[in-house]
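Q: Now give one record:
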Amino acid sequence: MNVKPFHETNVLVTGASRGIGAAIARRFSRVGMNVVIHYIQSHESANETARQCLNYGAKVMTISADLTSKEQLLRMKSKLEEHGMLPDILVNNAGISHYGLLADVSEEEWDLIMNVNLKGLFLCTQAFMPRMVAQRFGRIINVSSIWGLAGASCEVPYSTAKGGVNAFTKALAKELAPTGVTVNAVAPGAVDTDMMQGFSTEEIHSIQNEIPAGRFAQPDEIASIVYFLSLPESGYITGQIISPNGGWLT
């Protein structure tokens, strides 16, 4: 196992301009790892996350790409290679949610949800996995959802996509286990991010009342689990779907 010191370790976090992704980027930068902050359109938010990471003295790079486009992804990979920032740790966090009755979901909406949450994860992993295998060390951590485990009414496409993320994680973990590359997923329950803004105050209180812990998770709490799974000493943990959800699903 070729373990690098933290200051030589590169981390790519997709969808890192805000929310859970930004918290993950900050968590890695705090220990001096080099962080790539990926985003699609949220340029200012990505720059703000970068500024926060730079405050810890980390090497930081921001990059924009549509991960569902293989052409754009390969262009991103080439830029990272030019800057010596190809990832040793890949955090597949980019994703979109959807709320509504299945009967009202259009084919275009279904395709978009599957492409962003699953195809993007596949293409990104496929692009950066070979280097990890070659150096016999790497960490692939996929951000899933509690709904990928339990399913959610009025969130059928999203639940389906995140269920696919979980299956992808388990299968790839077995495939890569002999190489020193681990593959795990973190499947949070309700997290206090922009994703919750579509719910009314009454709906939010109703959800919180269902959670034994009585509150939503903070993004930093999810980031801490992602960070733990990335450590060299976590090398015997692979193929796991870890769900921090305050006791909501046990």
About this structure: Residues 6-242 form a domain with the Rossmann fold fold (CATH 3.40.50.720). The first helix runs from residue 19 to 30. Helices lie at 19-30, 43-54, 70-82, 107-135, 147-150, 156-176, 201-210, 219-230. The two ends are 34 Å apart (CA to CA).
